[in-house]
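Model: Ready when you are.
Researcher: Fold this.
Model:
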Amino acid sequence: MEVPLSHIRVRLAATAVLLTPLMACSSGTDAPAGADAKGGAASDDRPATVTVTPRGKQAGAGRPVKVTAAGGSLTSVAVTDADGHRLTGKVSADGTTWTSSRKVAPGTAYTVTAATRTKGGTTGTAKTSFATAEADKVNKVDWRPGTGTTVGIAQPVSLVFDSPVTNKAEVERQLKVSTTNGTEGSWGWMKDWSGKDRVDWRPKEYWRPGTRVTLNAELGGTDSGDGGWFVRDYTTTFTIGARQIVKVDLDSHRLTLERDGKVVRQIPVSGGTPGGDKRSWRGTAVLMAKEGTINMNSETVGLGDAYDKMVNYSMRLTWSGMYAHAAPWNARWFGNANRSSGCIGMSDADAAWFYGQVRPGDPFETKGADTKGTVAPANGFGEWNLPWTQWREKSALR
């Protein structure tokens, strides 16, 4: 599911001027001013001094928050944005410095609250705020699959970026995929069919049914390079459905649906016409979407004016226009010959049944003696046609 992100709101609240260094504003002793706890002379054990960077109202994004205590140690630090989202971080071994694990995002206001303690036991709390300048250019993301969906065993996690990503390694470090069973997988970069930068995460082998998958794209505050800044994080969680594999034999003109290793049904089909541009693709394609009844126009895929018609039970397999669908006009060729313009056609009845059985993410494994080549990684989700070692090489962190 591609989700438009034009509604992203960049937060920038009014903030107080940062005063630094800051004195902690409370003391851990009940002694009155001018005397120590025993009634003697005033103690020189003052609260620790706290400094914070970044600072000001137009601070630069893309760097961590650093909080330092002089004359004492930090006992707790909280850094939150205007919506209450908190930056996590770690205190140094000597307790004097806290550094956030995330970088600050553009156009965002942050509040910092630091608690301190001195060797003599004096405690204090310092609070301040700062804001980052808005980004000159914001990079946005479309991703698949959508949250809460159940998908087939070949569905990758896929992110397409609105603007170029030249800082690929830094962006990839912020992308974290977790699964309920420790599935092995890798990111791979490519140019999407649209020409935009895209990165997919696919497992080494098809997903195990029932696996729950979570993507945490912690991109807020990351510089994508020439394409600008990311100003927010993205997350999606989805589940892997039954082990369904669609096998298409163009030589025998048969489509076979297998579920959990057993044949559910065989369907006579007609594939792409041999000997030219109307041939079908071979290799593994992934069902991208069930599009129902759509208009198909051959001119949009470079085949002249061969056809322009409404087509039922359309199931997209590639960006270049290969579908499985109902094709009643080709009925005499089902099971006998390949006479389509590249798609996998079947009867209305078979298409209606098949459409109700499959789901996005199901692999279509197609073979045949006369095809126009193997589905490319970026032509839909054709990355399954690369051996695992080659796929891993497409990661920016290898």
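Researcher: Now this one.
Model:
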Amino acid sequence: MDVSRLWAPVTRWGDFRRRQLAALEESNRIAAQAVDDDGSPAPAGDPGPGPAPTLGPGPATGEGAGSVPVAPYGIVGQPLNRHSPFYIGFYGATGAILAVGLWQLAGRITTTLTVLVVAFFLTLALNPIVDWLVARGVRRSGAVGSVFLGLIVVFVVLGFLVIPPVVDQGGQLAQQAPSYVQDVLNSRWVRELDKNYDVIDKVQAELTQRMSDQQFLEGVLGGILGAGRAVVTGVFQVLTVLVLTLYFMAALPRVKQSLYAMVPSTRRARVVSLSEEIMRRVGSYAIGQVSIATFNAIMSYIMMSLLGIEYAAVLAVSVGFLGLVPMVGATLGAVLVCLVAFFDEPQKAVIAAVYYLVYQQIENYLIAPRIMQRTVSVPGPVTIVAALTGGALLGMLGALLAIPVAAGLLLLYEEVLVPRQRRV
């Protein structure tokens, strides 16, 4: 072999690489040829020049069956057996480790994913209002700003309705707590228990011991700090949802176009039509449910004000939030109002129960059908199952989002799966 060619001057890297590979292949061919020490040809029976030697069993059919070819660079060996227990165990363990890591990662970002989902559904709920303003000549930036300002006003009004009464009533409770404790201690049944079992002295001794216990004090202090931290975290999450909602509303058309561009052109029109219909129905459902819950809260506030039930503003806001939960939310709000009214005056609780019984019939047969007529019609069993499943997975948030998700899945079932099965 003329190895001087390998060191010849080269002007291009590609030429050098091709010459290098050619020289290496020629060297491997010569190394595979068996020769004697004196340079004479190999004796009979030894492999001579020709095809590269092979070892071991190979494929059952085809050229070279029953052998494994030598690798291009003289490396000979068996192929990797993918049925080997070591191979299967290694890749199975790798997959399990990857799955556990992804699950832990998802657990750590659950709060972030929840905030994103809430902001997205809030965007879908507010987007029909934005589109309505845009259709009447308002620029999208102005429409988004107006809708977002209205949303901020709603949150501020709710805050003024809820926070001052809660703070005021909490302060009153703290001031009257000693008198409440004294009334309990002076009650007849407590005196009887103290006379027979010396309860008061035992309770005082237990309280004294607890107040001198460092671990108990740290636990109480930690609970108070934890509650304060939860309040601060909740406020931060609400602000984050509002900011994300603003960005989502402003960029929603561009986001949709970017996502649609990823779909093959042959199916893009179908995907666009289904996606737009799902988003329209989800937004309409959200607006309708909020409207029904708001009307229920306003009427409940009027009823409680006329009856003189305490904490009317706080209870009305609670009824409105519970009314967002499908199927059972309005009933839970009615039960809450009746319980508070019962401790105030039983006659008021009876009147409130009668009011809610009549109002539920009016809402179910007159108000809800008119407001929800443009949204998807979800069967009752599907609604119950979706609400229970969503509540089990994500609590109240899951129950709120279950019906829109079920509506989207039902639309895909009716428009995609059923027609495809008919064509098969």
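Researcher: Key takeaway?
Model: The longest strand covers residues 54-55.
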